[in-house]
Amino acid sequence: MDADQGSWHMDHDKIEAGVRLMLEGMGEDPTREGLVDTPARVARALEECCAGLHQSPEPLFEVSFDAACHEMVIVRDIPFYSLCEHHLLPFFGVAHVAYIPGADGRVCGISKLARVVDVFARRPQLQERLCAQVADAIQENMHPLGVLVVMEAEHLCMTMRGVRKPGSRTTTSAVRGAFEKHDATRAEAMSLIFDGTK
Question: Which position among 49, 50, 84, 131 bears the catalytic label?
Fold first, then answer.
């Protein structure tokens, strides 16, 4: 928990009142046995699922290691869950994060790459923005030579409503630095990410 999150709490009363109104608007009775505790449950669930709203990624990068590493580092298949900001329905999938350490050869702990995905996923989101935010946070805090982030996700707003196409996945990418400037570097990373998933 960082300082921002430590001084912030969701307003459960407002959320619960809103959920009761929503249930009434649907024609439900929020006082019936199965729903009487639903507003409080939803408030607790949203506090957990949207904890990233008031978290900063910066503390994740306060510790780094002098590994004299100048080669590509890739963490594949990082699971993530988020909420589509248009419908407040979940989207979920995996993130693949690659970076090339800066000239100093310092690296971060690999778990930090998964944690930075969580910080930005745990808030109402667009997948395109989420992908870019993860790449920018790594670029701004680690100063690597390059960053590449690829995300693949299924969106329930497309699966259970609207066009109703279960199993369809959306892929987004964000490239910074060397991955943006050098086609061969980007191609190598993509090959390592996707050839390894077969």
Answer: 84
Cα–Cα nearest to 147, from 162, 158, 155, 136: 136
Neighbours of 143 (CB within 10 A): 14
Taking a C-beta distance cutoff of 8 angstroms, is the pair 197, 168 a contact? no
Catalytic residue among 87, 143, 154, 180, which?
A: 87
Q: Which two tokens stand for residue 102?
A: 């800066």
What's the confidence (pLDDT) of residue 196? Answer: 59
Q: Which residue of the set 55, 127, 133, 139 is catalytic?
A: 127
Average model confidence (pLDDT) across the chain: 93
Q: What is the pTM of this model?
A: 0.91
Residues 7-62: tens digit of each pLDDT: 578 999 999 999 999 999 999 999 999 999 999 999 999 999 999 999 999 999 99
Question: Does 84 participate in catalysis according to the annotation?
Answer: yes
Catalytic-residue membership of 155: yes
Query: How many beta carbons lie within 10 A of that of residue 19, not counting itself?
Result: 19
Burial class of residue 92 in the structure, from the number of CB atoms within 10 Å of its CB (0-12 exposed, 13-18 middle, 19+ buried) = middle
Q: Cβ-count burial of 64 within 10 angstroms (0-12 exposed, 13-18 middle, 19+ buried)?
A: middle
Q: Annotated catalytic, 139?
A: no
Q: Is 35 helix (H, G, I), strand (E, B) or coil?
A: coil
Q: Are 135 and 148 contacting, i.e. CB atoms less than 8 angstroms apart? A: yes
Judge whether 85 counts as a catalytic residue: yes
